[in-house]
Amino acid sequence: MLPSQEACPAVQPLATDPRAGAIARMDWDELAATVAGCMACGLCKTRKNTVFGVGHRQAQWMLIGEAPGADEDARGEPFVGQAGKLLDNMLASVGLSRADAAQQSVYIANVLKCRPPGNRNPEPEEVALCEPFLKRQVALVQPRVIVVMGRFAAQALLGTDATIASLRGRLHEVRIDGRLIPVIVTYHPAYLLRNLADKAKSWADLCLAQGVLQKSLAMSEPRQ
Ligand code: URA
Predict the structure, then answer these.
(1) 53 lines ligand 1 (CB under 6 A)
(2) pTM score, two decimals?
(3) Which residue's CA is minimally distant from atom 7 of ligand 1?
């Protein structure tokens, strides 16, 4: 259901989000319910559904996109449109599937949980207000590797304004909830739909992530 217009305040830039401490302690059910009812920014006025995330909640891989598009907004699930089909094919090429519960393989989420109208770029304030949700998802999943897809997701997660070209092809790390997690940057599937020649680079990025994961498993202590 569309929340009432009056209930949604205009986005205010916040130095620190007062909700962040509480969000950082939530379990999955609380987090999902809080996202579903979130009215922290103006995107709640235009969304049909919030888009929380999909996949195994203890996945070894976590894939992070930018924001829901029209199909995702309608379905409440990330990456279900054309870009999602390409993403599923790319995952299959390295033996992964969002539906695969047995191998604890993949969890997929976005930086923003609501669709920006007309698929415009996310505003920095929207990213800042939504970020605690993503960080809590990462803390709960405890992935062995994160793959960020596209400039906005990469810049938001890594806290940089560097270009995709300069970020991809090498290992990054992010510290979330005291845990250092390897991060690989790759192109957004929607970009790849328009630039087919770069698909090979994206496949190489997934292979790099797979190598990072294998190394982590080889050195591994079981997750708590
Ligand atoms: N693009 C994204 O970044 N995320 C989605 O869920 C769909 C398209």
Answers:
(1) no
(2) 0.90
(3) 79
